[in-house]
Amino acid sequence: MFRSSQPAGDKDRDPYTSLTMDQGGNDAPTIDDVYKALELLEEGQTGFVSLAQLNQELDIGVVQATGEMGMFTVEALPSEDSPDKGKVYYKEHLDEYSLQHYFHTYFETGKVKGLESFEVRKL
Question: pLDDT by residue (tens digit) across 88-112?
Answer without folding.
Answer: 999 999 999 999 999 999 999 999 9
